[in-house]
Write a structure and sequence with these properties.
Blueprint: H1 8-13, H2 17-24, H3 26-39, H4 41-52, E1 57-62, H5 66-81, E2 88-92, H6 95-100, H7 102-105, E3 112-118, H8 124-137, E4 141-147, H9 153-158, E5 164-168, H10 182-194, H11 202-215, H12 217-225, E6 230-235, H13 238-253, E7 259-263, H14 265-268, E8 280-285, H15 290-306, E9 310-315, E10 341-343, H16 352-373
Helix pairs in contact: 3-10, 3-11, 5-10, 5-13, 10-16, 11-16, 12-16, 13-16
Region (Disordered): 1-20
Keywords: Isomerase
GO molecular function, one term: isomerase activity
């Protein structure tokens, strides 16, 4: 396998074979995941129906780190899909918040579906969040676990329960490298298809990702060679969750040597913009929503006008028309920057949730190249052992409040 002009021997020598393979395999993995979800359609529908038709219920999307960002990517699309069921409330709450503040995050007696995302299923917070949900919510709590490790504690503990369903993804999604890549996009798409959210099929998404892998190598290498010292990833709505994941990939794979920040385009002006200097790279994830895209484009024009760092846009529509709507003229054409606008090979009407996995492939590749440029081994980037593949050092303290 060759990725980004890197041969298998190059990748092995530089400590990147797993990371590279797991990035490159995503188009194929997505097809496998879609087939898996389709094969369990009847089981999923039976499990989800009572909660989705309840007069009042909560869906809590949870995980830690990258897995928490999956919920943030999904929440806006799921809220919109359930707009005709106002009694169903959808929230993304990290397991790290549930564990430290269970009574603020969980409501006794309210029908609740805890959707847990976990690569290994062995993180202390993942297991504790399930136990706390059972304790605080009581018998009205149900669990949907989307996980990549069949032998993980989350999967094994929930698989025999009548109030739980485990959506076990194929083994190839269980990334062996430190950073989550195919596990992230695999779980994201599995949940999207499980809830039947509108987005292109795996064939369309996979072709777009493969096209990116085959055509964007030179641009990605040029960006890496620019030796940026800071990166800002900006996205609105569900793409803000994706921005957080993209920024985390850069931070993780460069072992913290590249400062990474994520925000929304509107939020960025309120202080975080001070991070910009001439060694900053900005990735702007353009929303597919015409109204939201106007705010994205306002900041994109502003940043390019100010010329403090390089600004790259990613979207399914060219930036000069992304802010148009049926009742208003198109936004003014941006300053010419053909090398700085990445046009994803997706239908123009692809929703933000569909843009997310393909856009993330670009960021993953950039993170890999930045890691290699710094002489870091991407498969195990933390030289000091400060962070580990499965988090360690967490003590789960007993929660002695009354049960629901």
């Amino acid at each position: 396998m060759t990725l980004l002009h890197l041969t298998p021997s190059d990748l092995e020598r530089r400590g990147a074979p797993h990371t590279a393979r797991e990035i490159a395999q995503q188009p194929a993995v997505w097809q496998t995941v879609q087939t898996l979800v389709a094969s369990r359609r009847a089981e999923l529908d039976t499990f989800l129906a009572p909660l989705l038709t309840a007069p009042a219920a909560r869906i809590v999307l949870t995980g830690a780190g990258s897995s928490a960002f999956i919920g943030q990517c999904l929440t806006p699309a799921l809220v919109q899909a359930l707009a005709d069921r106002p009694g169903v409330r959808v929230e993304a709450i990290a397991t790290t918040d549930i564990v430290s503040n269970p009574q603020q995050c969980l409501t006794p007696g309210v029908p609740t579906l805890l959707v847990s995302f976990a690569r290994s299923g062995n993180s202390p917070e993942s297991l504790a969040a399930v136990a706390l949900a059972d304790q605080v919510v009581g018998r009205e709590c149900r669990h949907l676990a989307v996980t990549c490790a069949a032998e993980g504690k989350l999967a094994t503990e929930l698989s025999s329960r009548l109030d739980a369903l485990v959506l076990q993804l194929p083994d190839e999604t269980h990334d062996r490298a430190f950073a989550m890549t195919s596990s992230f996009t695999g779980m994201l798409l599995a949940a999207a298809w499980a809830f039947q959210l509108p987005l292109p099929g795996a064939d369309v998404l996979g072709r777009a990702a493969q096209h990116l892998l085959e055509t964007e190598t030179d641009r990605l290498q040029s960006l890496s060679d620019s030796a940026f010292e800071r990166i800002v990833v900006l996205g609105s709505n569900g793409l803000q969750g994706l921005a957080r994941e993209a920024a985390l990939k850069i931070l993780e794979l460069t072992d913290g040597q590249v400062v990474a920040l994520a925000d929304s385009p509107l939020g960025f002006r309120h202080g975080p913009k001070t991070i910009l200097n001439d060694r900053t790279l900005v990735l702007m994830l353009l929303s597919a929503d015409p109204y939201t895209a106007r705010y994205d484009l306002d900041l994109l024009r502003e940043l390019r006008r100010e010329q403090r760092g390089r600004v790259i846009s990613l979207g399914a529509r060219a930036p000069d028309g992304a802010g148009a709507s049926p009742t208003s003229p198109a936004s003014p054409v941006l300053p010419a920057a053909p090398d700085d606008d990445v046009l994803l090979a997706l239908p123009h009407d692809t929703p933000d949730l569909g843009l997310a996995p393909v856009s993330l492939v670009f960021a993953q590749c950039l993170a890999l190249l930045a890691s290699l440029r710094l002489g870091i081994t991407p498969d195990n980037p933390s030289a000091s052992g400060t962070v580990t593949r499965v988090v360690s050092g967490v003590t789960i303290h007993p929660f002695d409040r009354p049960h629901a």
